[in-house]
Amino acid sequence: MLYINGEWIKTEDKMDVFNPATGELIESVSTGGKEYAKQAIQDAKEAFKTWKKLTAKERGSYLAKAAEIMKSKADQLAETITKENGKPLPDAKGEVASGIEHLEWYAEEAKRVYGDTVPASSPDRQLLVIKQPIGVCGAITPWNFPLSMITRKIAPAIAAGCTVVLKPAPDTPLSAIHVFECFHEAGLPKGVINLVIGPAEEIGHELTSSSDVRKISFTGSTMVGKKLLKDSADTVKKVSMELGGHAPYIVFDDADLDLAVDGILASKFKNAGQTCISTNRIYVHENVADEFSEKLAAKVSKLSVGNGIEDNVDVGPVITQAAISKVKNHVEDAVKNNGKVLTGGKVHAKSEAGGNFFEPTVIANANESMLIASEETFGPVAPIFTFKDEEEIVEKANHPTYGLAAYCFTSNLGRSMRMMQELEFGIVGINDTSPGGVQAPFGGVKESGIGKEGGQYGIREYLEEKAVSIRLV
Ligand code: NAP
After folding, report:
1. Which residues constitute the catalytic centre (predicted)?
2. Between 425 and which of 57, 89, 143, 406 could a Cys-Cys bridge form, CB atoms 3.0 to 4.6 Å apart?
């Protein structure tokens, strides 16, 4: 269903949503293309006139109400995420909790959009900087966090006083519909948020080419992000781009190896490796590489693979058959280039019943010539490279293209501080694979993105500063 100007809209055109764990059809949802996107933009423009004039407290109260409604439906929302995305239910519950946290945070952050009084250059002038919402925002989201990626955009945008037209990923539109239901029940004024599910190019073109849309916030691949950046140039829009990554995971020989091994279980195998900040390259100091590899392979071989709706599943399916093919290709290429499979390495037998399962895989003896060394695998495959010294590893870890997240395990404080400074990434975890939270700025450098989501930083992306000079006549 589409949601435009406060109304749920059914259309003749339909799109099927499948369960990646079973291959079964979950639901057919209505879709709409450019005419609907155009209408949604006009309604968002109209709504902006009044929404921006509400007090921050009033806007925040709608977010707080939506958060309460989301809490009351948390189990149902989590089940929907698991069904359409495949992640295990406890992880889906975690995603819903994160979505709620974003609503709650920005319900409060709305009230903290302060301006400045700036010393003027002459005594008869008063110079002020006021912050104002940018206007109608186009938001485009991926399938890997089908709920929290939406709340991370909508919450700061509407807290700031902007209005939104959202296009979610076609694989996971049901979570998007649920988020909109929460806002609808919260009584959010019509037109403030609008949902258009449908063909990406058409909707994307309407959003990027319309001069009524003043901002594009996108999360997805670097390739699509670049296209949207180019398309937004003609109307000189503000943009936030949360793009792809290629995270290094560096384990020094002074690290707590068990901690580092457990970190991989979270950073590589959660969400079946389909997270933008997932580890892609594990670099282990040669003195401890064998011990680390053995411990990791032993733990990974015990991970249970299956339908995330069932109990005790660690790794769910990947999103599509195309994703399976990419993962398989990366593993085959690694083997061809002297990689040694320590565990896994194949399409999982459970796929025979219709799901998209790949065996949790560890590959030792990884090297720079492998595809896996430079491309995002987006699957449950952990390649282990080795290194000799700190200087060498900083150079290797700093990817020429990507700069989203990096991880480093060491017990040396000086080294921790050096790595924090030298790693060219937007997010660095030192002995930590969950380097974030609602309060922290999330985003990349280089081709991993522009702008931040989260905390006080996230709301700035939806505001413009206006300089006001008052002559004291
Ligand atoms: P994707 O192919 O770039 O798609 C993301 C969204 O963009 C989908 O809704 C997609 O819709 C839409 N889209 C594609 N082409 C478009 C166009 N021409 N105009 C407008 N919209 C368009 O990415 P994905 O495969 O879904 O997600 C995985 C990627 O996202 C990975 O690279 C991952 O690292 C990145 N990611 C980054 C972050 C971050 O915060 N940095 C977070 C999560 C994911 P259609 O599917 O209908 O084409």
Report:
1. 242, 276
2. 406
Cβ-based neighbours of 171, under 8 Å, separated by 6 or more: 17, 18, 20, 84, 85, 143, 146, 319, 320
Residue 436 has pLDDT above 90, yes or no: no
Q: Are residues 264 and 175 in the same domain?
A: no
Is the CB of residue 318 below 6 angstroms from any atom belonging to ligand 1? no
Which helix or strand (DSSP H or E) is residue 330 part of?
Answer: helix 321-336
- By alpha-carbon position, which residue is closest to atom 23 of ligand 1? 220
- Which atom number of ligand 1 is nearest to the Cα of residue 169? 9
* C-alpha 238 to ligand 1 mean position (Å): 19
Residue 377 to residue 375: CA distance in whole angstroms: 6
Residues of the domain holding 279: 247-430
Residue-by-residue DSSP string for 109-140: HGGG---EEE--SSTTEEEEEEEEE--EEEEE
Split into its structural domains, the chain has a count of: 2
CATH at 286: 3.40.309.10
Verify that 127 and 258 share a domain, yes or no.
no
CATH (domain of 77): 3.40.605.10
Q: Is 182 left (phi over 0), alpha (psi -120 to 50) or beta?
A: alpha
Q: Tell me, yes or no, whether 183 and 49 share the same domain.
A: yes
Write down the pLDDT at residue 298. Answer: 98
Question: Is residue 245 in contact with ligand 1, taking CB distance under 6 Å?
Answer: yes
Structure tokens at 75: 């189990």
Per-residue pLDDT of 100-136, as tens digits, reads 999 999 999 999 999 999 999 999 999 999 999 999 9
Residue 242 annotated among the catalytic residues of the structure:
yes
* Ligand 1 atom with least separation from CA of 444: 41
Ligand 1 centre distance from Cα of residue 327 (Å): 18
User: pLDDT tens digits for 310-366?
Assistant: 999 999 999 999 999 999 999 999 999 999 999 999 999 999 999 999 999 999 999
DSSP 452: -
Which residues, other chains included, contact 332 with Cβ-Cβ below 8 Å and sequence gap of 6+? none
